[in-house]
Amino acid sequence: MEQSDIMTRGAALLLPWALAATLGAPSPAGAQSGAAQSPSATAYFEFIRGRHLESLGQISQALEAYRLAAEADPKSAAIPAEIATLNARANRTEDATRAAGEALAIDPENAEAHWVLGTIIAAELEGRVEAGRPATTSKPTLDDAISHLERARPSRPLDAGLAMTLGRLYLTKRDFAKARDVLDPVLEREPEHAEAAYLIAQAQLGTGDLDGAARSLDVVIASEPQFTRALIDRADVALRQRRWDEAAAAFGKASEAMPDRLDLKLRQHMRNELRSIQRMVGITFIYITHDQGEALTMSDRIAVMHRGRVEQVAPPRGLYEAPATAFVASFIGNINLLAGRAAGGNAVECGEARLAASGAAPAGAAVAVALRPERVRLDPSGALDTVLPMTVAHVVYQGETVRYILKSDGGLELQAVELGEVRFATGARVRAGWTAADARMIPAASATSSTPQESTA
Predict the structure, then answer these.
(1) How far is it, in rounded angstroms, from Cα 247 to Cα 359?
(2) 265: buried, middle or exposed (CB in 10 Å: 19+, 13-18, 0-12)?
(3) Is residue 46, in this structure, part of any structural domain at all?
(4) DSSP letter string over 183-217?
(5) Degrees to nearest 5, angle at CA 341 with 339 and 342
(6) For 64-68, 245-249, 299-303, 435-439, which range has the lowest pLDDT when averaged over its residues?
(7) What is the CA radius of gyration of the chain?
(8) CA–CA distance, 55 with 89 (Å, rounded to integer)
(9) 3-state helix, strand, coil in the chain (%, to 5)
(10) Second label for 79, Cα 20 to 30 Å away, from 45, 107, 143, 336?
């Protein structure tokens, strides 16, 4: 749209006779014959000067030139229409609205003024700008915006921005046929115009044309693979068509395309939908993700891969509670990985501490104790297999849970997680304990320190 306007303005500078006719200015020959410059000639000169200043980005100076042109030729609608356009582009909506009204008072059919008013009203209705009129003025309606833009449309047949705005207004009004009338030509000229294709899809959905909507949404996704709204709509269309594989693919792409832009509830909804599709169809889904939450909540079995090799295949609960390697233990959820050596039976020597863990390894073998933070009990009342005196080094309040970072006098560090309120302050002395069944003895592998490992998805 901007390029079209600039091209139009460039042409205007090269065609002074056309502007002279618009403003009622005499030809240069006629102007030279007079001793004094006529009002029309002044208006013509200031209008051209304003266009030049505007092309240089000197907005205030351009507006002043247009003001002088309007004073010299108060019967020309082109001048206040130009003032309205320039103010609209500078987001001065109140000044733009006033100038457009002045232009229409002179010429009720001035297309530029209608374009300005229609664009401003549409933006107000969509909440993108503040009202550009006094509070005492009645609030414009959807039909007002449509009326102005329709009257501007014949003079801007290639203006895709106008078509997009008008198409959205017709969709809001649920006039799907009119929306297609203004949007289809845009897509014919620009087959990869993602926004036009998306709005056309909404019109097709409004009329129940699911096949057409699917094709239009495919155009959007092909042009903009991370257009998340289109991916979600495409999945919804596939569900309504009972095309489960297409729905699953679209939901998966949406969750992976921009996870940080998706609302948490929406992500959870998409997970549930995928799970429902799988159960409905009764076929095996292979879902590849780096999101541990998705893997744990959606899967019957999970395969964890590391450097091209499968580390472990197990149901979600088995993978979380009985990891086979240090990598799996640290990758899935938060974990305490405490490096030490097997001491026979269920015992592991970790520095000066002797820790209990399920599993077995030859005495003296390098192992690690994998212990989930929620399995650590603070100041336990009953008997446990391992109890260590520790100091609270840091407290992290997380709403539903409280995470404690604990350190022993011998340098051992643990994380512990509890539900509810904060029970211990930083610096407090506590006893941290667990049963052998709560911890697991695994090959040491990458567990070379007692620092808790944070999963990386």
Answers:
(1) 43
(2) exposed
(3) yes
(4) HHHHHHH-TT-HHHHHHHHHHHHHTT-HHHHHHHH
(5) 125
(6) 245-249
(7) 35
(8) 13
(9) 55, 15, 30
(10) 143
CB 295 within 8 A of CB 271: no
Give the number of other Cβ atoms within 10 Å of residue 295's Cβ: 20
pLDDT of residue 345: 85
Cβ pair 433, 376 in contact under 8 A: yes
Q: Are 337 and 370 in contact (CB under 8 A)?
A: yes
What whole-number distance in Å separates Cα of residue 457 and Cα of residue 455? 6
Tens of pLDDT, residue by residue over 270-320, are 677 777 777 777 777 787 777 787 788 888 899 999 888 999 999 999 999
Q: Please give the Cα distance from 428 to 424 (Å, whole number).
A: 6
Q: Is the Cβ–Cβ distance between 25 and 41 less than 8 Å?
A: yes
In the prediction, which pLDDT does 66 show?
A: 83
Contacts 24+ apart (CB under 8 A), 406-409: 406/376, 406/430, 406/432, 408/353
Residue 448: name the closest of 338, 286, 306, 336 by CA.
338
pLDDT band at residue 26 under the 50/70/90 scheme: very low
- Counted domains in the chain: 1
330-365 tens-digit pLDDT = 888 889 999 999 998 889 999 889 999 998 888 889
432 three-state secondary structure: strand
Q: Give residue for tokens 């030490």.
A: 340
Distances (CA, A) of 430 to 353, 422, 453: 16, 13, 22
Does some domain include residue 276?
no
Which domain, by its residues, includes 37?
2-194
**What is the mean pLDDT of the segment spanning 443-456?**
47
Largest CA distance in the chain: 116
- The helix/strand/coil state of 291 is coil
Tell me the CATH number at 146.
Answer: 1.25.40.10
Question: Euclidean distance between the first and final Cα of the chain, in Å?
Answer: 43
**What token pair was written down for 116?**
């300005």
Q: Is residue 175 part of a domain?
A: yes
Backbone angles phi and psi of 391, in degrees to 5: -120, 140
| Cα distance between residue 133 and residue 104, in whole Å | 16
Q: Domain for residue 116, yes or no? A: yes
Per-residue three-class SS string for 88-108: HHCCCHHHHHHHHHHHHHHCC
